[in-house]
Amino acid sequence: MFNPLLPDLSKIKNEDLDNRIFELTKKYHIALRLGQGGAAQQIILNLDAFKMEQQRRQVESMKQIEKKSNDSGMDDLINVD
């Protein structure tokens, strides 16, 4: 679910994104321990948004690495017959 109060996550640095995920995870566990189910649900919505952005970046990074490895010309070095 999209939260309109969240900033544009694509503009956040990777380190800041990781820190926000860590902090939200801590707050989520605190809310659960205190019996604040409603707050925990709101936190999990934001946490999911941050994790989806992190996953999107990882997929994008893997695609770039894969493209570089395919473009490197290493296929011609090994002749398998």
Task: Tell me what you see in this structure.
- The chain has a domain at 14-64.
- The model has no long low-confidence stretch (mean pLDDT 87).
- It is elongated, with a radius of gyration of 19 Å.
- It has helices at 14-33, 37-71.
- The chain is mainly alpha-helical and 81 residues long.
- What count of helical segments does DSSP give? 2
Residues in β-strands, percent:
under 5%
- Derived structural class: mainly alpha
Q: How many strand segments? A: 0
Main sheet specs: none
Shape: elongated
Beginning-to-end CA distance, first to last residue:
52 Å
Which bin fits the share of residues in helices? 55-70%
**What order do the SSEs take from the amino end to the carboxyl end, as H and E?**
HH
Cα gyration radius (Å)? 19 Å
Average pLDDT score: 87
Unreliable stretches (pLDDT < 50, length at least 5) are none
Oligomeric state as shown: single chain
Quick gist of this model?
This protein is an all-alpha fold. It has helices at 14-33, 37-71. The longest helix is centred in the middle third of the chain and has 35 residues, at 37-71.
